[in-house]
Amino acid sequence: MRDLEPVPGFEVRRVQPYEATKLYTCGGCANTIEVGVGHVVAVPLDAVDLRRHWHWGCWAARDRRRPVG
């Protein structure tokens, strides 16, 4: 299981494969996160309506790329 480090200004949580019951668009690469794929959801504390779902790899590389979507 991958550990999530705290990110200032965000609530970040793991979405288990059994919790991923619909398609999501990754906030890092704009590709689809399929049903049943574990991933990360990040919610800005000051703008909860800007919640984004991310692939694990995209989340890990977020400091090296611009978010999309």
Count of individual beta strands: 5
Distance between the termini: 27 Å
Strand order within the widest beta sheet: 1-4-5
Task: Name the average pLDDT.
Answer: 88
pLDDT < 50 runs, ≥5 residues: none
Number of contiguous helices: 1
State Rg. 11 Å
Task: Tell me the helix content.
Answer: under 10%
Structural class: mainly beta
Specify the overall morphology.
Answer: globular
Largest sheet: 3 strands, antiparallel
Report the β-strand fraction as a percent range.
Answer: 25-35%
Could you spell the SSE succession in H and E letters? EEEEEH
Describe the structure.
It contains 1 helix and 5 strands. The longest helix is centred in the last third of the chain and has 5 residues. The chain has 69 residues and is mainly beta. The strands form 2 sheets. Strands 1-4-5 form a 3-stranded antiparallel sheet. A two-stranded antiparallel sheet has the order 2-3. The N and C termini lie far apart (27 Å).
